Amino acid sequence: MARLNLALRAALALALAGAAHEGWHLWRANRDNALIAAPGRIQVDPATPPALVFAKAYDLARHGDTQEATRLYGALTQTGDAELRTRAYYNLGTLYLGDAARLWNARGVLEYVRVNTLVSAAKENLRAALRLSPGHWDARYNLEYAYRITPPPKEKPKSDFKASKGSVYATMPSLPGGAP
Description:
The chain is mainly alpha-helical. The protein contains 6 helices and no strands. The longest helix is centred in the N-terminal third of the chain and has 36 residues, at 2-37.
């Protein structure tokens, strides 16, 4: 009878420990869901779960703070969760692409270097998203858009060299190798 009581107490203690552990996880999930619903309250630090960092970055991008959103998405690309990394790369590419499109539409060729840099960064991030998830059609669409809005290369100044002799040897600095 004493052994049965001891076994029951041990089982009861294990059940309480399991219930406490599950309760803590439920409390934490409820807290994270409440923060995701109101991402303005999220304070990002190194211990912040990646899902909350993603929600904060998304909220910042939605409200126009693309620089901070870019920084947070960049940090998320280093996480171990492939799905989250895919989404971070996709959102990074989309942010760069949106900035490039707005800049190109507002300033045109005057901002050629910045637009080209932003489009290149967008393409790089969208390709990274597609490497992680080849079936990501939104990333494919945006990558195609990035290729379409890539500004044409700057024209090189025309050379003013005018050959006057009919022979090609006239333009060579020395005799070709193998000549006598």
